[in-house]
Amino acid sequence: MGEPEAALDDWADGIRRRSEDAFRAVYALVADELASFATGMLRDRRAAEDAVQQAFLELSVAAHRFKGDGRALRAWLFKSVRFSCLDEIRRRGRRQETPTETIPDRPGPAAATELPEVHAALDTLSERHRTLVLLRHVSGLSGREIATVMRMSRPAVYAALTRAERRLRAELDSHQLRRESA
Amino acid sequence: MSIDTFPELSALRVELAPHIRDRHLVEIVRAVRGEAVGRKAPAGISWRRWVGSLAATLTLLTPVAAAAADGAMPDDTLYPLKRALETIVRLVDRDVVAEHRIEELESLVTDDPTSPTVADLLPEARRAVRGIDSPQLVIRLAVIEVIVDQAWATAAPLDAAESADATSSDRPVDGEPVDEKRVDGEAVDDERVEDASRSDDETRTDEETTPTAATDAPVDNAPAPTISDAPPFTEAPRDGRSDPSEEGAEDRPGGEAAEAPAPAGDGDTPAGTGADNDPPRDLNDQTP
After folding, report:
1. pLDDT at A135
2. What is the pTM of this model?
3. Mutation choice for B interface testing from A52, A152, A162, A167 by most B CBs within 10 A
4. How far is A98 from chain B, CA to nearest CA, in Å?
């Protein structure tokens, strides 16, 4: 078990007791991971921030019903953020909106050139595959946690993730080839 | 594959700005204390007021009522009437709703940019503005966001939390239409076997595949209400699909877990994943 999970274990009881300190601590531990995931899903930093806040507000309401350890807590939050993202995407679909390109708060040196290509490559994936890739490679969730978030069995997660990774790798490589040849 | 297999994806990692964290924590602490019931809860507004609003709505055709409600702010009595009128007007002209939110925010931000009402209205205004094509409103919203961000960046978060007005429960009803609630239908369907035979990677020897005591809880197949992914994505056009059969499987209602079967009795679903542990679909949906 990693350090963050162990730390979350310490706060799971506090969450059930609706301790303010527990909420602050859990927020500090996972907010960035949640924001990264939501940003990848929505490509809109503001909307992603709203999704993160909404997840914690929902947790504050449902805390007394929460069961499980730190790992389950983290999965719960990711699941909530995913639901919020799906709602937002559905709203956009109804309004025929195109998502706003996200500019990271602290973009790395490669971000400016790679971000559009990464988004374009992710767009070629289905929603499920895109979600799996983001959970695994952006937020760093384990296969077990992803299985909980996605309500899939672990073998199903691994199978789908492998297919998604292959397709994403092919897309990213083709983008790189085009860039180098240009 | 390890996490470092896709270094390109590191560009997607973000860190929340300190003032955003402070703003979130203030709202979260307020919710934990029970001072904020939730964004969508019409807390503090009695049924009598709703009946009154309904009666007023019935008379909305009278120009006097409509004109009076037009300038109402979130804390005003006539605000519900204004929102009710908007739901009708929105069918014809969506810009009006966005403009109302912006006007309300501009007025509220002038008084207190860190007020909970502003925090509630901002996401709503963003959604409203995103749905229309009006550069003026986008600019006005951007100015408001800058003001709010700066106010939060300079405000002491704990002070703000302590001084939060308990009347925040009188916040306005969220303007989301009823039909925008999340849709049920994501069935737990770990028993499907169709994709298992296609997978050539199920033998993955990741350390995470080793069951531990914490993961030996039984798979919870309770038909808990969850979100259906299918509607938004089956409608959205996507390019580059190379595996139609696979995508078709995902498009089926309840096809959420159709990727591969759950091994019988392997219990690899982690503990605490029962229906009770699912995030609520809506803040109003907290009934056990």
Report:
1. 92
2. 0.50
3. A152
4. 9
The rounded distance, in Å, linking the Cα atoms of B240 and A123 is 9
Asked whether the beta carbons of residue A159 and residue B260 sit closer than 8 angstroms, the reply is yes
Q: Which of A110, A126, A133 faces B11 most closely, judged by CB atoms?
A: A110
User: Chain B residues with CB inside 8 Å of A59's CB?
Assistant: 279
pLDDT tens-place string over residues B131-174: 777 888 888 989 998 888 888 888 755 544 444 444 444 443 44
Model pLDDT for residues B4-47, shown as the tens digit of each residue: 678 878 878 888 888 888 888 888 888 888 775 445 444 445 56
User: B111-129 pLDDT, tens per residue?
Assistant: 888 888 888 888 888 888 8
- Do the interacting molecules here have an ipTM over 0.95? no
* B225 vs A: CB within 8 A: no
pLDDT at B119: 84
pLDDT of B32 reads 84
- Chain B segment 47-86 residues within 8 A of A by beta carbon are none
Find chain A residues with C-beta within 8 A of B248's C-beta.
none
Facing residue for A97 by CB, picked from B17, B131, B276: B131
Helix axes B116-130, A70-95, angle to 10 degrees: 50
